[in-house]
């Protein structure tokens, strides 16, 4: 039996011989020879391929021809680095390659600002097309498919590397812009805005709109970057320019492009946390926005005194609460915009308003105290509304007028001392 089984076995294959005739050595593979030959041809042709790529860019890409010579030279270096990196890729296809460093590391970081992502894609596409058209000439006989496949894989990796480079540049630029914007917002809120803040705002795309106001409220919990982005989306929808930031627990928005601060606040109110939202008065430019910010901040502090305040509310609608809370600008505004005009309009208006308020807004009671007809009181009160813009018959306006009268009398008493 053993002899029969042995007789059925296949005969042993003849020993392989090397080119020198030694048995046991493996014969060379034709594919390896083709790959090595292609690699040598690729190394010799790399300079010529880079020159062809640059010539193709100059011929087909108008933006490349319009660039200054320095940037064109950097693009040429990037093209050469890309072809050199592909040569290394083809030599060691399984080894990890840092393509973004190999290719784009030759150019300065400023090049990503001078060349857009679309232009970079066109540059890479042109270079790949030049290399693809030279495959038949560069590849050794029988190695064309391998070279073409390697080029396709490399083109995919280059696309990923391009996206990574521009994503990193965008992240760095975004972080820098966020810091710059925070400096501008903080300068306006602290009352330290100057020409430097204006230039920083211009670098962020602020186009100096004619009407500017500051909106303040409570920032929501969570990522402040998401809040800022939500404000930007709301501003785009409302067609406003904004500079915004989260400072502590406050969400600050400097908005430009609309002369109605209440409409501005309503358009941007969505991202604010629950609680009061106060809009400062409209001012002509960013330098004057410090006044709007002071009024909005004072209104936000005093808003708790008016429990039924609307949301959003104007800082000027909170003048009496701000004055009671110690805001000197609110006190001055009440005196200069209400008391002084009434004083200049004649003592009859001041006396009638004072008596009317003391008599619990009763026309008949005021008429009896003044010894005049109720229609006379009614006429004088209409004159008060025309002069000041505040109606004595409205409860809220009457409160504001009463505070203005008190502050005006105190100011007159101080001048007499």
Estimate the strand proportion: 5-15%
- Outline type: rod-shaped
What is the helix content? Answer: 55-70%
Q: Mean pLDDT across all residues, rounded?
A: 83
Alpha-carbon distance between the two ends = 138 Å
Strand order of the largest sheet: 2-3-1-4-5
Oligomer: single chain
Helix tally? 19
**How many β-strand stretches?**
5
What order do the helices and strands follow? HHHHHHHHHHEHEEHEHEHHHHHH
Uncertain regions spanning at least 5 consecutive residues:
1-30
Give the biggest beta sheet.
Answer: 5 strands, mixed
Task: Please give the radius of gyration in angstroms.
Answer: 39 Å
What class, by secondary structure content? mainly alpha
Could you describe the 3D structure shown?
There is one protein chain. Helices cover 65% and strands 6% of the residues. The chain has 417 residues and is mainly alpha-helical. Strands 2-3-1-4-5 form a five-stranded mixed β-sheet, with helices on both faces. Strand 4 (278-279), helix 13 (289-302) and strand 5 (313-314) form a beta-alpha-beta unit. The chain contains 19 helices and five strands. The radius of gyration is 39 Å and the shape is rod-shaped.
